[in-house]
Protein 1
Amino acid sequence: MTSARLASRLASLAAAVAVLTALGGTACSSGAGTPQRAIDPPPALSGSVRVGYLHHSTGGNVWAGGVSEAVAAWNTAHATDYAIGERSYPDTGGGYPWANYPYDYWNLWVAHQGASHDRGELNLDDLAQAYDVIVWKHCFPVSSVEPDDGAPSVSSPTQTIANYRLQYTALKARLHEFPEVRFVLWTGAALTAEQTTPEAAARARDFFAWVRGTWDEPGDNVYLWDFQALETEGGLYLAPAHAEGTDSHPNASFSAEVAPLVARRIVDVIEGRGDTGSLTGQ
């Protein structure tokens, strides 16, 4: 082989190696060599989009901070038609407890389906007929997480990480039964240092880290808004500047600060950016 032909052959091999290296870099995670599944972003919802914002008092404070106004401003600026409305849920009118924790959503949405309802509360079938996007959350007592008792049960209202995980797993499977509906779940509202213990706060942090890192998955119809991160600023507790004194409700100034963020997160989910947009809406 002549030196010219050898040089040409080496150049061709070098080019092939470069292509394979580039392909490998896009198909594998950095440094791990583990193939990543390509996720096609969901299409944007078109036309009029109905958004149901389910809440109790914490969510009510944030709503009052300007959620509907932020969505209306987006509609004006972008010629969209996103109609958002709030409702207390469970509304307790039929005697259901003032509770919206993992057990309660499991009870209302998984244990009761179709024509089955607990004390007249709407179940997920009802809500999915009314809304294209459902925003749901827990109030701050969700962060009063007890030590595991060694007897996890999906039907237990006891607030342990093990029970929460079973209930969240069942809930995700149920949400997947409504692929035409998009769900936006808040990570759990935090407690002030005065209303919890370091141990309980750490358990709450650990559970919602599992929600972010394991339970949430790209490519489905379930998305997060990381309210906990905003409230705690990376710590264990609701930051004092964001609280109503030692009470664990978000104060008016913080609610006004984060209302546009949840509105932006909802818009991202509607417009197909749920897996690529910021979890906090920032």
Note: The CA atoms of residues 184 and 266 lie 7 Å apart.
Protein 2
Amino acid sequence: MHNLNTRCSFWLEYSTGVMAMLAKYCLACRCKHKSQHWYGVRPSQFCVTAYARMYRQGLRVVHPSWPRYARNSQLSDATGARICAAEYRCDVSAIRDAAVLLSNSILTSRMRTLVILLSSTYYFSWPSQAFITGIIQVGLAEPNREILVSIGGSVYKRFRAYRVLHGQLAVCSSKRGISCTKNPSERRCGSMRFNEIVGDLPDVLAMISRLEVYFAANAQVSVSAMLQVIGRSRIYSCRASYKNVRCCRILAIATSKRFVDCIEDFNVFKGMSPHMRSTLKAWGISDFATAMKFVEGMKDISGLTKYSLNDFIIYTCLMSATVFDR
């Protein structure tokens, strides 16, 4: 990732305040034309198309969006977790804790995965662990829908009055902090997603069974391939939406599977919402090669050798404060 940190021979600089679509002279194109963004200082200016081409060709230019990524690598979100990598997210920690708590239970493999999927609707570890403990105490290998609904509902009622403020559980006004039973990336309460999963239980269990076969056959997995295995049910489908992508992430983490970086996954991430498409386009990350250069750069900055394209996309979402719903 030296290309991102090595100074350009042209000493390129960029300005975030340039006006869109101005007709100027491009040093690379050697003509005057319009472009959405201009990089560099007159008279050594480059249009966005020429600049992106230079970057893809491996010239030693600093991508204009890179300084912001580097500058925010230590930034935390409203939940108190760092945003630069998936492993710092509160829901990822909760999922991993859930896998440990369930490892010695008598639940079947398929049911353990279902319980982790349901517990992820709480997002934070506190209610998630309360739900898992309640399921384990029942002592059944295959808890039925009524048991899941009963325990899930009681946990939601118990934690309804609590909020998360600066990463800590607190009792405070609804105007402060974040609900500890809600994914901050969604507009809906986690109980709605919980009820959707339980309401579609046979199809969700069938989906988990198919994914278990896929996991057994692959050391590394991809979101694009998982979406095809998911198929179609009332709640989850093969469509590249945030809801379906998050389901893939949860189940991969629950089974300790790593995502392989591939162009198919980049296309899935780019297409999972209009916000994601516009964010990547606005920041000049329009192709897989550019995204992977950023991934390599984040490996150096974060010190995480397993930093992946999935981490980078999550970082981009959180840094732009993008909100998804479905």
Note: The mean pLDDT is 84.
Protein 3
Amino acid sequence: MAGQPRTFQSKKQNKAVVFIGVAAIIAILVFILISYAINTFRIYTVVPDYLRYVIACVVGLASGALASIAAKQTIIVIDEESFTYTKGKKVEKYPLDSFAGTNVVRNYMNGAYTGSTRYIRFKTPDYKIRQIEIPFEEKDYSDIVSLIKKNNANSISEEEKEEIREAFEGERRINIPRDELLKSFSKSRKARAAFSIITLVISLTVCIASYILMDIWCFLAMLVMFGLLGPTLAIAIFLYGRKESIAAMKSTPSLFTAGPDSISFDDDVIPASAISGIVATPPSYNSTGKDYEFRKVVITDNSGVDHTYYFGKTLKGNKKMSLKEYTGVVTLLEIWSFSNNIEFRQDLG
């Protein structure tokens, strides 16, 4: 970055457009709800017709006003020493060495993923943790965190850097209980297959019984409900995570080794000179929500090809599929990457 600060900013919103849009949508919805309630409970004889318009307009205008006030642009500036967060008139500034980590909360509605809320944490002078929401997409968020770590690393003296490099004069090894992990994967696949078969059998049984005991219309209804949806559900359950599970079982190492100028996963030896970047799933995250919640280390070589290695699932999944050794792997990878001047990132999805 060579002394030049870097700026990240959210899209600037037109407050007038936000006000009109939100006010109109909310007013229409409120009017529909009030009209439905009046007609349902038959109170239209005692409620003046104009009242529904007045209430809808008041609620709509109030919502629009609140939305336009909340529509503030977020600007983040990172230089070699500090992190400055600006939202509207609110400005916060923290030294980079007070960086206390990240937090990503994945949001769901009725089981469906709706997006992530991303935070960066800093230590305050009174020894508390300030958690700042970062309203950016994954790439910008990852760039911000990477830049903070990089600038912090740049502040380390050459003597300290040399001490870190000397730590890799010999090899560091971490054994991975691969066989135990693969047994858990195998049991999970068998359980999923058994559940799929049970679902299919129930669906077919219901269809046959309805054909024997019910009239044609009931049979057709059951055929649609169970004859089509049942097998579809069974196939979905069977295929869920199958491709990724097979890849994980093939690409889970039993030994990770870090040497002075190379790393290896079992017999795959990768020299530092051939690596352009490393991305790893954060050990502390309960769920990345991607790739069926697998923990992965992705090594990108100088030609742009990714080499992916799996280390079980995140903590949210089956505990028997979570490798406690993974934390050590990521820690060692980050230190090794720093000592070899290789960009290391955690997948902050």
Note: The CA atoms of residues 102 and 120 lie 5 Å apart.
Protein 4
Amino acid sequence: MKRSFLSAIFIVSLFCANIIAQGHGMYTLVRADMKGNIENLGNQVKTILESNNFNILYYGDVATPDLVREDKEDICGNKAKLFVVSNDEYIKMLTSYGNKYLVAGFLRIGLYQTPKGIQLIITDPETINRIVFNDLDVTKYNNVVNKSIKFKNNLLNDLNVLTAGTKMNKEMEPIRSAEDLREASKDMFMMVGHMTLFQDTDQFPVIYMEKNTTGKAGLKNLIDKTLGNISKFKPNQDDVEYRWTSSPSDLNWEIKAQMYSPDSTAYLLGISRKRTEAISFKIVGDETETNKCPGIDHLCAFPVEVLIMMKGDQLIIQTQREMFRMDMYFWDAGMGAFMSHANMPSMLDDSIDRALIGHISDLR
């Protein structure tokens, strides 16, 4: 009976996904099947971004499922490279509604290899902002969406200066309708909750809070303390034993990107680690004989956002609940994958807490 019930949930989930297939994707495929060297294409993208007033916060490799494969016969050998960038005018727009919206400030662009060639993909800033800003009233919400659409189109035009491959600008899964995004409809019902950061405090919880008596100096001290905690992080036994990995260093959380709000009273930090990337892509990918690493098309799901900011006379640290974040970026993996890895989000929550504040938070 239990198996039949879970199967029914999974079928409903897939049915809903098909209904909204014409909606808003978490990712946009910009150009497809480009030939050539991924390093050379990365350099071309870097030049385009810099010439169009984007600040490159991070550029480097992303781990593929090969990292967590003991059987070397299953190695795909494909590479993936990630840009995390920002744009000053875009950040000003986001934070004009409040510094908490700095959480949407990382723009992510990825290159990944497939048997057909190299693909160029972005996280869709319009879709991200439809989720992040859905606690605003309808007038302000529509204003943000319209500005986000304009910004996204300009970004796509910039990237399509590339002539390699085929121009696509295609919405990619997970895909949701405008209505579902506005209403913060939950996807994996009974498991996740509503798709919103600021209406449901469980989704973007405060994991640390302290009194601030020294203003921006206090914020700087907390940031330095947090960065120090990350550098000293050691995985606990549950973290180590969760999945096979080739090296203990794959479990270390790394700082990928960081930036301040225009008024310097909020700070956005992006962290990731190789093993979490590799496992996530392995879970979501539907492997075939010809493509053993399909899940790397979700590479722009990382890094994980951490917001450190002044709020009244308090300093707070917030980061997304990992079950929510997995639903947000990896919903298309399906209910079966979520059920099979149901303990992964809580393990990651604990690991991230320990990396940021040195212990498991008692505020979640």
Note: The chain has twelve helices and eleven strands.
